[in-house]
Specification:
This protein is of the alpha+beta class and 584 residues long. The chain is 37% helix and 23% strand.
Length: 584
């Protein structure tokens, strides 16, 4: 009888040994899931939660300012002047780096840093550390392309200025705090900035944050300036400063009909991409924030005010003896000469200090200072740029005022203006007596909503008839007087020079002047007004230094603005053609 084979059953203990790793793994996974669910849903006691969060935050999180896209800035033709760019912050979680030697070598090649220093960081026992606080987009994208686990890349918004230093004083800059400073960036901060939110970001890879709530972007702004005219102004200013060894200067171009600023250049400029915040004087816009005694350009306003009030007429005259004592101060002409019988026009063409002082003292302080106030002297223009100053004008009743200032203020001494303030006042003469507020922003764009700013009159300091008479006198200054080097063949130019001494606490500097020329053209139908100002140039008179700069600048400006010569304009007008048009 055969014997049946017994089944070969596995040893139960051996089975348990084989299955134990699987069981343990399953238990671990379940435990992790349970802990995860408990953390998500269990409400810890407040004091325990606070301690837990504090410990976690101290090691695992970074506080960042998350910003929406800042509004862009364009010139009047849509050329970008301020845009948005990205920098990158590079961090590392060393415990996730499996090959520190290779990672250190690759990062050092891209970052341009010390390989050993980077190795010590990626091979350390810290939980997370910054490798590079801010690198440009090219470097950040190169590191991102390596796709290294444990390397974190945080995008950081940065303001970019593609035109470099061009129009830097107009635009201003954005600081590391995402706040706009100076110029348009500062003045329109609320419009440009959009929304900014403080946010806590995890430093640990694979740890998911809450879904971001969308932020509203800032609004774009379109300026009145023309990039090509701005470049011309800055180029001419640099040339003039270099040739005359001046310490600085400004050129402003305005449309007197609506107050639009077409260009505003000051030297030296700065780079808004990398502003030197330790040198705030360099970042300020001298054209609106630096006041100075304007000199003889002020005679235009003195004559205009007296004519408008009827104190004098175009035929008025006086006997110029070369000296005039007012309040114990002896006023003399710049050439120290007596000019005999002089009419109103000659006061301007020969730039006579005694003539201007005679007019102001004839007006008396009440009428004289009212006339200057009507022209906006001593008041900010209200231009939409951050940092404008109001200038300085003392009047009777002020502790600083004395009777002699009634005479000296008439020819621009003892009174201070900003370049923009002076150009705004002179532009009212070009605009038939109506003074327009200078305007820098033409449009604000919020998505599909476009807000167009409107020209705003500041007042009418003189009548249209007075403006015509004074304009003709200013033409005589260029054609027959001390402004003859500003003459541009084919064009009627109205202008006036100003050579001013530089005051100090103990008197005026020796052999140091600020030279100005202000003019507009065509004189019979003004489309553009220009101020040229040079600080401490070589030379003695603005008629020899600033006036030729105006001519050279205007010669190219009329081409950019497509202003035809007078004979062409008159011929077109005779044929009924459209000669000029106020844009915007």
């Amino acid at each position: 009888m055969s014997t049946m084979e017994q089944p070969n059953f596995p040893d139960p203990q051996e089975v348990m040994r084989n299955r134990l790793p699987i069981v343990i793994t399953a238990l671990v996974v379940v435990s992790i899931l349970l802990v995860y669910r408990l953390i998500l849903f269990q409400e810890l006691p407040p004091e325990v939660a606070a301690e837990f969060n504090s410990l976690r935050d101290a090691t695992n999180q970074t506080h960042l300012q998350i910003a929406s896209a800042r509004g862009r800035i364009f010139d009047r033709d849509g050329q970008p002047l301020a845009v948005n760019a990205l920098d990158f912050q590079i961090g590392v979680s060393p415990n996730l780096i499996s090959n520190p030697d290779e990672v250190a070598r690759d990062l050092a090649a891209i970052l341009g840093g010390d390989e050993l220093e980077i190795f010590n960081i990626v091979n350390s026992d810290v939980q997370w550390e910054i490798l590079a606080p801010r690198v440009n987009a090219e470097v950040g994208q190169a590191i991102e392309a390596l796709d290294i686990p444990g390397i974190t890349i945080q995008r950081i918004p940065r303001r970019g200025y593609p035109q470099g230093t061009l129009a830097s004083h107009i635009i201003g800059f954005v600081g590391g705090d995402l706040q706009g400073y100076n110029g348009v960036e500062g003045y329109y901060q609320d419009q440009l900035s959009g929304q900014i939110r403080d946010e806590v970001v995890s430093n640990i890879p694979f740890e998911f944050s809450e879904i971001d709530v969308p932020l509203s972007d800032g609004r774009d702004v379109v300026l009145t300036i023309d990039r090509d005219i701005q470049f011309l102004a800055e180029s001419e200013l640099l040339r003039s400063v270099t040739e005359t060894a001046a310490s600085g200067g400004s050129i402003i171009v305005m449309d007197p009909r609506n107050g639009d600023i077409l260009a505003m250049a000051s030297y030296p400029p700065f780079d808004p991409n990398n502003p030197d915040t330790n040198n705030p004087d360099l970042l300020r816009n001298p054209a609106i924030s630096e006041q100075y005694e304007p000199g003889s350009v002020m005679k235009v306003l003195t004559v205009a005010g007296a004519l408008n009030q009827g104190v004098i007429t175009p035929q008025w005259s006086y006997n110029d003896q070369g000296r005039l004592n007012v309040g114990g101060i002896v006023i003399t002409n710049s050439d120290r000469a007596a000019h005999g019988l002089v009419d109103t026009t000659t006061v301007l063409t020969q730039s006579l200090n005694v003539g201007a002082a005679t007019i102001s003292t004839t007006m008396g302080p009440t009428r004289f200072y009212q006339a200057l106030s009507d022209f906006g002297i001593g008041q900010a223009t209200g231009i939409d740029l951050e940092g404008e100053q109001a200038g300085t004008m003392f009047v009777p009743g002020d502790p600083e005022w004395s009777e002699s200032q009634l005479a000296t203020n008439a020819f621009g001494q003892g009174i201070a203006v900003t370049p923009l303030q002076l150009l705004t006042a002179i532009s009212s003469i070009a605009n038939g007596g109506l003074m327009m507020q200078p305007r820098m922003v033409y449009q604000i764009i919020d998505g599909d909503n476009v807000i167009t700013t409107q020209p705003f009159p500041l007042g009418r300091p003189i009548s249209a008839e007075t403006a015509r008479i004074v304009s003709d006198m200013m033409v005589a200054v260029v054609n027959n007087g001390q402004g003859n080097l500003a003459a541009l063949p084919g064009y009627s130019i109205a202008g006036k020079t100003g050579t001013a001494e530089i005051p100090t606490p103990i008197g005026y500097e020796n052999n140091a002047w600020i030279m100005t020329f202000v003019g507009f053209l065509p004189a019979d139908d003004p489309q553009v007004a220009v101020l040229i100002k040079l600080d401490r140039p070589n030379g003695r008179w603005a008629s020899q230094v600033a006036a030729p700069v105006f001519r050279r600048f205007a010669e190219r400006l009329v081409i950019l603005l497509e202003i035809p010569p007078d004979d062409v304009r008159h011929a077109l007008a005779a044929q009924g053609g459209a000669v000029t048009e106020v844009e915007r």
